[in-house]
Amino acid sequence: MTATFCLDSRITDDYLQRIEQRLPTSMNDERVRRDAQAKVEKLRLWMVQQKLDSVLISRYDNFAWLTCGGDNRVLKNTETGAGHLLLTADRQYLLAYSMDGERILEEQIPAQGYQLETVRWYEGDPRHLTFKLGGKRIAADTALPGAEERTLEIHRLHEPLTELEIDRCRWLGRQSALLLEALARRLHPGMTEEDVARETQCLYSLHGIELIVLLVGSDARAIRLRHSVPSGKRIEKYILLHPAARRWGLHANICRSIHFGKPEPGLCQTYHAAATIYARTLGMLQPSLPFANILAAQKTWYADLGYTNEWREHFQGGPCGYIPCDPTRCFTAMHVVAGQAYDWFITLPGVMSEELALLTISGIEVASLSPNWPSLAIDTPTSGEIRLPDMIVV
């Protein structure tokens, strides 16, 4: 049996439509330009603090952050785009090949104050213009001889997200949840994992969303593997589906479990344990909380629920946004901040609990929870009841 590709052109609900009414429809919108200018000022303040003459932005994640949603890529499988942003104390440059510069300037960063500087394809790397325009001490977010590579520090300037970025995360989380709702109704035993992957890719693409990760595991393979890249295996009773979505440079990484017929009690118990750890993690989140404290608590919860060493088998998560996730925070003294998106991956054999969560001034918000998918109401010691998606039985 083969898959039937999705032709759904519009999957939405009232909540999603209300968010859409608040979102800019053009990169030339005043709100986009205002956010982008605030980030230029933030990056320049960091330059002063670091005693830098200029900063070169080449990675697509940092480009999207600095421009509030712009995309500098032609090749989609590289971290470095075709356009590079150079900031000095008083100038902003777009460095690019001649075949890309005008397009990026007009379509991706309109009216953001950049001066275009180009080279022909046979004249070398456009980034080398940095040494003509950028002064003596230059930082870069890619390895570039003659510049200081400062990727990690630049990534941390992404936080907190702006009000516009939070709304974009809300849209991306809700749209992803609705798409997976629609997808679950189309899947059936006998499809291969690759069939499911193609259906998922098609549906997300139709809604203007790209997938940077797509995992599909089924039955025993889902239980054995933490990262089940889709295979030709045919599905019998169970699917674990994990798309990592990207739009405007922002990410929503979520997971859904789908069972055909009544699941075994052990699988339900394991799923509930993962969701419990996830909910307790969200319940802990508050400004100024050290990330190391979260990992310490997670280790205790894994043990209390009978899965003592399972925390070792996968990243535990951290802040997300323009990067898919930074799971290294749990080894640092860094603190949780408000106005930020968070992604935790709580995995146990055969299950994963993962949602796009937002910590705002109003508290925790699970942006990827949709009204029609069955949910679990989980009591947490610190934040009361938190609802998360349950395994769906079809």
Silhouette: globular
Number of helices: 11
Category from helices, strands and their pairing = alpha+beta
What is the N-to-C order of secondary-structure elements (H for helix, E for strand)? HHEHEEHEHEEHHHEHEEEHHEEEEEEEEE
Q: Uncertain regions: pLDDT < 50 for 5+ in a row?
A: 1-7
Q: How would you write the strand order of the largest sheet?
A: 4-3-2-1-5-6
Count of the domains: 2
Distance between the termini: 18 Å
Return the CATH architecture of the largest domain.
Alpha-Beta Complex
Helix content: 25-40%
The fold-level CATH name of the largest domain is Creatine Amidinohydrolase
Tally of extended strands? 19
CATH superfamily of the largest domain: Creatinase/methionine aminopeptidase superfamily
Q: Note the beta-strand portion.
A: 15-25%
Describe it.
There is one protein chain. The protein has helices at residues 14-22, 30-50, 60-67, 98-108, 130-133, 151-156, 163-184, 193-206, 219-224, 265-284, 291-304, and strands at 54-59, 80-88, 92-97, 115-119, 138-140, 148-149, 210-218, 238-247, 250-253, 256-259, 317-320, 340-344, 346-348, 351-353, 356-360, 363-366, 375-380, 384-389, 392-393. With 394 residues, the protein is of the alpha+beta class. It has 2 domains: 30-156, 3-Layer(aba) Sandwich (Creatine Amidinohydrolase, Chain A, domain 1); 163-393, Alpha-Beta Complex (Creatine Amidinohydrolase). The strands form 5 sheets. Strands 4-3-2-1-5-6 form a 6-stranded mixed β-sheet. Strands 7, 8, 9, 10 and 19 form a 5-stranded mixed β-sheet that branches. A 4-stranded antiparallel β-sheet has the order 11-12-15-16, with helices on both faces. It is globular, with a radius of gyration of 22 Å. The two termini are 18 Å apart. The model is unreliable at 1-7 (pLDDT under 50).
